[in-house]
Each structure stands twice: as structure tokens, then as C-alpha cells.
Amino acid sequence: MIRREEPNYIPIENPPNILIILLDDVGFGQADTFGGEIHTPTLSRLWDEGIAYNTFHTTSICSPTRAALLTGRNHHRAQTGSITERALDWDGYLGVIPKTSATVAEVLREYGYKTSAFGKWHNTPANETTAMGPFDRWPTGYGFDYFYGFLAGETSQYEPRLYENLNPIEPPHNETYHLSEDMADKAIGWMRHHRSYSPDKPFLMYWAPGAAHGPHHIFKEWADKYKGKFDDGWDEYQKRVFNNQKALGWIPADAELTPRPNDMEAWEDITDEEEIDFQRRLMEVYAGFVEHVDVQAGKVISELDNLGIRDNTLVFYIFGDNGASAAGQEGSISELLAQNQIPNTVEEQLEVLDELGGLDALGTRKTENIYHAAWAWAGDVPFRYTKLVASHFGGTRNPMVISWPDGITPDKTPRSQFHHVNDIVPTIYDILEITPPEEVYGFKQDPFDGISMEYTFKNTNKDAKPLGKKKVQYFENFGSRGIYVNGWYACTFGPLIPWDTAGSGNDLDDWDASDDDWELYHITEDFTQKHDLASKYPKRLKLMKQLFLKEAKRNSAFPIGGGLWTRIHPEDRIASPYSSWVFDESTTRMPEFSAPGLGRESNLVTLDVNLGENASGVLYALGGSSGGVSLFMDNGVLKYEYNMLLLERYQAASSETIPAGHHTIEVETTIESPYSPGEVVLRVDGSEVGRTTIEQVVPGAFTASETFDVGTDLGAPVSLDYADRTPFEFDGTINTVKVAMENAMEPYLSPLLPAVLD
Which of 287, 342, 650, 692 is most buried by its number of CB atoms within 10 A? Predict the structure, then answer.
């Protein structure tokens, strides 16, 4: 039992510091440490100084993996069945880690550990990240004494939406800043403070960069290191790395290569030279991005050496919170096109890219680029599929290295026991000889779903293929699901195709989970899930399907596919409960998910302003350079822009300058539905001065982490018109900004609901 007034003591002498490194959206076959072709010197160094796991698993998606990692519970039990942006009112999908599943930081802090978290959080409901909290659901409310990072699922690496503890932070606007470097510097600074102020206390550090989640932002010199290395395309990459993996002994000698999905483009099918160059460059940028963040992790490791504490620091380096991401679809300059299920073509994107500076613009702040889904598939070699697929290991199997010089003898033999991210916390408690508390701060605790991996630290039988001590583990994400039982694995792909979200999204409301076809694999003999044994062992498959349902019920995973709801019903996405607001110049950094939906619903914005001569500056802005809405003055001219995820820019402007003085400005937006065009009318003192048509409405979100700002455009700029003047602060006075929404969308019950409850 843990109560704040009672001291707790770690049973062992000289307990280790603990560092958890978690990269984002990287695949099993990408790091050269394990046969891939992206240089990862820090990961390699740690394997030289530790042990590595080739059958370690995640949940196939961001927030759920992080919730399981931090609590030792399955993701639905931790109420995180999907990403926090898709949180719903079903128990397993609330998007709030419950107090009944205390985090490792909460527990270790009560045992005297100093705790810190850096980088991506993504475990706070997206509508609870405003200046009004509630802050008990931020990192500092989950046991971390110090937090420096971003709360959303992704952010710009150049203009990130950062927080230090509870305080918003604006990064410097210059050409040398990069978030991964900033994270390393802040982590090093925190460790030095720890040495100064509490050198007798051990620490827990959770270092989770945004890399290599989209957007793939990296300096040109890092991308150029890979110039020409991927010229022969993803199919040849997959074959080449597969051979490398076998030569290293990283995968079994009898492992078989799995095929590319039939509905995924082959490299040889791309014949246009301009598109070929585009696809090659996207991969070069991604590779530079991954190497760069690994080098930053190396700075943190080197600081442990500098401080003389490396030998007694237990390092978990988890290479990915899921498999490589297919969100780029056919390769994209604007990542959220896929999330919003907006159809587009590569040709359309290349036209826009030319206007932004051509291939050299990729990786810069001008784009939100992410590579072709087939690069992700190849990066998950030797497995099938990608991130979001919980049924197959391309979505869930990630390499992990553990290094602890004082406690683990280095060994190059891969650990092949089946383990899961929910096993990390039980392992830590086992090492520290801490009994998992039955109660924390008055909350009776949920049982662990993970088990300790400490038994794998010593390799007692190099020739055997041990099953390990974990007997059962279920998987589920967006209806893609599976279950592991003692060396066997049953699974079904589900309704969502990650590399074709727009196409498969059209059929989601017709999906019935009970109609899914299941597959069966004996994975101790079939490392890559190549041979489906469902027809050979139907009774075993039936029993495993029954066990899956039992595990799903036990973990609050029903309704199966619950995370799909907001893909079918964007009107039910997390949003503000309000329909009207009054803002002023003090309103900044209001997250998009809490802000008025100015770009997706009908609304009227009324501004009371005082303008000077030739007034300039942003009146209000929602979103960022990848998409958003902005109203601004430019040398006396009133301008409006709707940035439709870079592909289109719908603009309106007054034909004459607005004279100095007091004015009422109105912006009336009419959008009948997320799938119909919209109309925007600008008025000054009651008279129309401009209008434009929104040909394609963004139905979901412009960005994952950008904000609504009054009198400035913080973060990445919505409009290119003032991109070189950011944040383009308004030089007049904004007395009030009144927003009134007119929601024309009536709530209705989807046929998905009875289907997923069956």
C-alpha cells in the first residue's frame, strides 16, 4: 500500500537509475543494428553492452502502447483502446489512464526515485490539454516530477507545441532548432540538476522523442547521407534486409519472407521519373530522421558516462511504439490527408511541392511529409503489414535492447521469448524487489497483465527455442486483433487497411466483426506468420477465438473495433462542449481539439478591433502550416485563408485597405456537412468585402498539436503570405473575438454499434 504520509524504502542496496527510450513509428527491419540500412550507432552500442529481444511486442499504435508501457497493464484495461484523439465513452476507450492502474513513475517516486519525462506524451485526452487542465491527467499528474515535451500524438520538429511541466513553451524561431536535439539537451540538463540537488537518489527518465512519427522533419545534410541508397525501391530493400537479418542471426535461419500485400503498389509499377525521385527522397529524409534521433539518444547515454553513473543505469531502448507507419499512403507532403480520408493523387502533391521548392522542401518546415506506405511495409521486414495492424507482427513486433553493465552480462544471442510492452514495469519492480502495491493513494490497484522478463537476462540455453513464461497475450486495434497462447497465434486482419484508409474507410459502417475470417500460426516454427494453419487445426482455432473473447471481456476491450467510431462518425470526435465563445488577445495556445471548429462547421466570428494605418498582423489563426484557417491584416488589407492540408488554399481579401479606426469584422462560414463545399463571407462594419468557396472541407482535424491563437499565429504559420514574418503579431488592438457555431449535423445511431456488440 502506498500513502503519501508513509515512507517507502527500496529493498535492494544501490538501486539502479532507470532510463526508458521509446522511439516512434519505426520498423523491425530498419535499424542497421539488426540488419536494416539506417545507421543506429546508439542502439548498436547498447546491444554491445547488453542484450536484445527479437520477439518483443507493442499494441500497434501510439497511445495504447504508452499506456501499457507505463502501467504494466493491457491497453484497454488502462482505458486506452485507441489514441486519445479518438477517445470515447466506452470503458476501454476513455483515453484516461485510471488511478487504479498507477504508473511506474507514481510508484517509484514514493520509493525515493526522482522522475522525469521528455518528448511525446499522448496519454491525455485531446480536449483536456488547455490552460484550464485538468492537470492531474498531464505527465506531472501521473508521477513525473518534471516534464518537457508535447502532449499530442505528433508535432513539428521545428515549431513544436511544447510544455515544461504545465507551462507552454515557445521554441526559438531559427534555422538550427530541432526538437530531438532540444530533448537531448534538456535531459542532460535535468541529470546535471539531479546530481547537484539529489545525488543520493536514483532516477527514472522516460525519453520518448517524436521521431520518427510524421511529419518527417530533418535537416538536409542528414537526409543527404542516404542519397542513392534506396534507389532500387522498397521491394529490393525488403529482400536485401531479410538476407542481412539472417546473416546476423537476428531471425531464425528457417524464417520465410512474407509477400507484399496485393493491394500495395510494387516499385516497378512506378514509371514516372518525377514520382520515382519523389519516393526515393521521402525515404532518404526518413532515414536521416531516424539516424538523427538515435544520435541524440546517444548524447543522453554519453552523459551517463560523463556523470559516472552509466554502469548502474538500467536502459530499455524500445525501437518503436508500433511498426513503421503507412500513414503516407502513396507518399505525401501532408500527413493528415490520410487521417481525414481525403482522396488525392501523387500528381496533385507534386504540383504543390514544386511551388514550395521541389524535392529540397521535403524534410523542411514547409511540408508535413511522410513516406510511401510500401517503405513502411519494407521496413517491417520480414513480417506482414504495418502500424495499426494488431493481427500481424509488422504492426506489433519491435526490437528492444536492455543494457545494465552492473546487472546484465552482454550477450549477442537474441532473446526469443514472447514478451510485450506491458512486461516492462513488472520487470522493473522485480529487479528492485518491490511488491506491486495493492493500493495507491487510496485507489485499489488493477492486477498486472505483464510479467517480469528478468529471467531472460541470463542466457542459460543458447540452442533452445524457449517459449518463455508469458502464456497468453491478446491484441486489438481498430478491429484488427489476435491472441497468443503458448507458441500459437490466432488473428484476423480487421476492416481498416492502413495504406488505403480512404478506400477501406468507405466500408467501415458495414463491417460486422462476427464475419471476419481468422488465421492460425504456430509461431515457434513459423517466425514470420507465413503459413496459415486455420484449416488444418479448426478446433484449436475455435478455442483460441473463444479465449480471445474472454480476454477482451476481462480487459474491457468491447466493443471490438471501438476505435473506429470516429472514423465513421467524425461529428463524434473529441471537441469542445461549447457552441459560443468570447476571446481576446490573451487567448493563445488553445489546442485545436478544444477550439471552435472554424474549418469544419458553420460559424460566425465577430471581431471588435481598433486598426491603425495600414494595419498588419494576425487577427486569429487555427492550425499550422500543414492546414488551418487564418484571418489577418496585411498592410491595411483584410485577408482570409483556408489552408486545405497544403493541397489547396482558398483565399479571400478586401479589394481596398481598411481605414484606421474602430471596426467590426465578421467572418461567416457556411458548411452544410463535412463532405460538402463551404462558403466564407468577409464583412467590415456590415458590408461585404470578400468571399471564397471551400471546395474541400477538412472533416476531422487540420493538425495534431497546433492551436487557436488570437492576435498572433504561434507555431507553424497557416499562411505562406506571412511565413517569413511569423508569428506576425497584430499591431492594433483586438477588443473581443466572439465565435458562434451553428452545428447542422444531427446525431444519429450508426449501424456499427450493434455490429461491434455482437
Answer: 287
